[in-house]
Every structure is written in C-alpha cells, then in structure tokens.
Write a sequence for this structure.
C-alpha cells in the first residue's frame, strides 16, 4: 500500500499525527507513507521513522491558490497512491488528493467535501474528543480506536544531541521535559502561563531539566513562566 497524508499545519498536530502513521504501519507492514506538509514541519517528519518521503506544501495557512493546488495534485498522479488521508478539515486541503486521482480519499467531512473525498467520516465529538483520537480513527474503516493509542516517538542522532548539550549547556543523562508554551493565535489558544510554571516547578523539584521552547514571538510568555518559578529551582531551567 502507498499512502499520501495531507498533514496538519501546526506543530502540536504534526507531532500527534505520528500516532496515525504508527497505526497505518502496524496494519500495513511494507507500506509507503508520504506526507504533504509545510516546509517548517520537514525537520519533525524526518525524525519519524514511519514517514517514507516528505512533500513540500507551498501554501500558507488560509491561502486558496486553487490553480496551484490542482497542478500539484496532477503532478502527484505519477506516484500512484492507493489511499489519501486528509487530516485538515478545509475544502481546499482535499483538492490535491482529488486532482492526484487517488482511488480512496479519507477524511472527516469538514467543509462539506462530498465530491473531493469518497471515504467521508462524520465526526462525533463526544466519541472522539481529542485530536489524536480523530487522526487515529481514520485508519479504521469503522472509525474504531485501538485499545491503546500509540505515542509519538521522534528519533535523534547522538552526535547532534551531544553537540547541542555543549552549545546550550544542558546534561544528556538527566530526565528532561520540554514545554512549548507558544500559540500561533495568541493567549486564547494556549494554556495560561501559570499552568506552565506549575508544571515546570513540579518537575524541577524532582531534579529534572525543564526546557522552554519557542520562537522569538514566544519570548514574552517564556519570561512570564520563568518569573513565576522559585529562584532556587531555576538552575535546571
């Protein structure tokens, strides 16, 4: 089997989508799994052993660019995919697999994609309240979830880890948790900084290392979290 995944647009969703990839690989041992996604997510996908190839999506969030989507889909016809999974809900995100003439095109109904998708699932939010459940449920014809959901697991290179430890002055033999407090659309889409500081403090008290990760846009919330953590605990932050 050869699959095309139209991947999510956001970091957290991109990581959670690996649970679907793992589920597909467990069902179809020798399958190939290509992911169409924004360039920024390529480094994440390269650390997922389930992903065979990454395909760059040139479309920014919210951009229509119908003619270019049609062209990309037609260009992908030569890959002869058996099935596509569209993980986003927009009408435009389903155009590429439709134009690639992929026989089975699976996804949630979303923006009334009756023509573009031919394996449409209707979401019951009470049955699948979490995004990771919605991703994994697409792997089953009846939308049923496995007894235990797989967990994301990114591979890493030891040499790269050691060089980063020297560069950023952290230890590689100490339990570590990374917190990513940023959100593309601001505070309304993320946990309050108080919550992050409480989580960080709990792990710091256990002698863990705590990393706060984000872009320059997240420096303010990172500072807010740090300010709410006791000074005596900050040595491992």
């Amino acid at each position: 089997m050869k699959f095309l995944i139209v991947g999510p647009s956001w970091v957290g969703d991109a990581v959670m989508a690996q649970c679907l990839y793992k589920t597909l690989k467990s069902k179809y041992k020798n399958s190939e799994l290509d992911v169409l996604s924004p360039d920024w997510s390529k480094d994440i996908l390269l650390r997922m052993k389930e992903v065979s190839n990454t395909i760059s999506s040139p479309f920014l969030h919210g951009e229509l660019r119908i003619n270019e989507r049609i062209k990309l889909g037609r260009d992908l016809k030569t890959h002869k995919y058996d099935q596509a999974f569209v993980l986003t809900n927009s009408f435009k995100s389903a155009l590429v697999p439709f134009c690639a003439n992929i026989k089975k095109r699976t996804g949630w109904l979303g923006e009334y994609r009756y023509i573009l998708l031919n394996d449409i699932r209707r979401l019951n939010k009470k049955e699948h309240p979490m995004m990771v459940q919605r991703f994994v449920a697409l792997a089953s014809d009846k939308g049923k979830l496995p007894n235990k959901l797989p967990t994301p697991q990114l591979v890493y290179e030891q040499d790269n880890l050691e060089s980063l430890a020297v560069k950023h002055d952290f230890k590689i033999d100490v339990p570590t948790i990374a917190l990513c407090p940023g959100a593309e659309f601001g505070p309304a889409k993320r946990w309050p900084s108080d919550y992050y500081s409480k989580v960080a403090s709990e792990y710091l008290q256990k002698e863990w290392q705590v990393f706060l990760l984000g872009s320059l846009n997240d420096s303010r919330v990172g500072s807010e979290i740090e300010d709410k953590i006791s000074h005596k605990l900050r040595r491992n932050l």
About this structure: The mean pLDDT is 93. The radius of gyration is 20 Å. Residues 158-236 form a domain with the Rossmann fold fold (CATH 3.40.50.2000). The first helix runs from residue 11 to 16.
